[in-house]
């Protein structure tokens, strides 16, 4: 990925972002914004499941975090970046953009105006956007944790899609998070290691390699400050009746996100 070095772009307290309103944690990116293009390309190349048809990206929102939260992340990244096994990496801390799918109970990001987080405790999506990830909360929906108690992401958008879940019947689209993850020096592992609560000594993360029991790669970090949500991707096609009329559907989506959709 291209290095994202200016954390200002994610900073809720930065004057540039403050214009969006103190309570708005999402900023819709125009379809020709460089970050939109980067995230969409990453999403499309990461869609690798042969039996799942590639969905269309409808919108990309930038996620704003508080200065306090970003400072902790930057501190962690700086610490990892000077590690002898990581210092030579082109991107500081071996930071990567990785996907995570989770449950959404509200209609956040269903159109350009829905940018306020809900307060439903079971809406994991809004919880993560508000306060980032917590190791202890991760995987509570899925008891089996192949590489122990950590925060799971994947370079495969089609794998993260398996975990993306709409709890509201009114949702038209699917959403997933693209996150900045400080991978550092990763331990590549094929065998399960369910006992892990921290990375193996000398490593910062575990990358599950496809092979024995895993079909697609996943990356696990064990520190809350090794990851921050960066973008929210809205994708898929509405199940509504508009589906039968492609032109109407295109107009419908264009209206939702105030942005021209490529035909
Ligand atoms: Zn919500």
From TrEMBL:
Signal peptide: none annotated. Gene3D superfamilies: 3.90.228.10, 6.20.320.10. Residues 12-244 form the PARP catalytic domain. Its EC number is 2.4.2.-. It comes from the Eukaryota. Keywords: Glycosyltransferase, NAD, Transferase. GO terms for molecular function: NAD+ poly-ADP-ribosyltransferase activity. It is an enzyme of class 2 (transferase). InterPro entries: Poly(ADP-ribose)pol_cat_dom. This is Poly [ADP-ribose] polymerase.
């Amino acid at each position: 990925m291209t290095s994202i070095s200016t954390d200002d772009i994610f900073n809720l307290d930065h004057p540039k972002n403050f214009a969006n309103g103190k309570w708005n944690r999402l900023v819709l990116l125009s379809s020709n914004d460089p970050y939109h293009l980067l995230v969409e390309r990453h999403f499309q190349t990461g869609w690798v499941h042969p039996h799942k048809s590639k969905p269309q990206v409808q919108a990309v929102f930038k996620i704003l975090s508080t200065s306090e939260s970003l400072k902790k992340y930057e501190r962690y990244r700086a610490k990892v970046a000077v590690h002898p096994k990581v210092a030579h990496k082109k991107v500081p801390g071996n930071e990567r953009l990785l996907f995570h799918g989770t449950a959404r109970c509200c209609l956040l990001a269903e159109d350009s105006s829905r940018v306020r987080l809900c307060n439903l405790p079971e809406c994991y999506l809004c919880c993560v956007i508000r306060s980032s990830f917590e190791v202890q909360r991760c995987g509570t929906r899925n008891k089996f944790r192949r590489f122990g108690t950590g925060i799971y992401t994947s370079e495969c958008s089609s794998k993260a899609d398996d975990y993306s879940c709409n709890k509201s019947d009114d949702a038209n689209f699917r959403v997933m998070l693209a996150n900045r993850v400080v991978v550092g020096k990763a331990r590549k592992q094929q065998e399960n290691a369910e006992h892990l609560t921290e990375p193996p000594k000398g490593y910062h993360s575990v990358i599950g390699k496809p092979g024995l029991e895993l079909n697609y790669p996943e990356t696990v970090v064990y520190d809350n400050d090794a990851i921050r949500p960066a973008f929210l991707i809205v994708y898929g096609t509405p199940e509504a009746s508009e589906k039968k009329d492609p032109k109407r559907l295109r107009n419908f989506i264009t209206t939702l996100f105030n942005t021209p959709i490529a035909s």
